[in-house]
Amino acid sequence: MEAKDFLKYKNWVVAGDVLNEMKYAGRIYQKLNRRGYHVAGLHPKEENPSVFKSFQEMEGEDEKYEVLNLVINPTRGLEIVKEAEAYGIKMVLAQPGARSYEIQDFCVKHGMEYVEGCTLVELSY
């Protein structure tokens, strides 16, 4: 599977500073929204109620999320991927700067599709 293949799925979680449009997470979050995707923002330290702090907070949502887009430092990203796996996420797209061997290894060992790519590039086609 390649990064472009993830765009077939319409329910995404973007992990990172999604409320800051100057950051890549914010740009990705906004662009997916504008394209009609069902997108949730996730950041463990965010105090804004429009952004989830964990996957546990998503349990009551009507639709199940399918893709996790990591735009966060790899140390925090690994913990988020572990939560995502428990939630039922099967696809992880890791942006440049959010990648690590540990994240990739965890995904492989837990049957999650792991791809390194750039969502903004894929959305530009």
From TrEMBL:
Pfam families: CoA_binding_2 (PF13380). InterPro entries: CoA-bd, NAD(P)-bd_dom_sf. It comes from the Bacteria. It comes from Proteiniclasticum ruminis. This is Predicted CoA-binding protein. The lineage of its organism: Bacteria, Bacillati, Bacillota, Clostridia, Eubacteriales. Coiled coil: none annotated. Residues 10-123 form the CoA-binding domain.
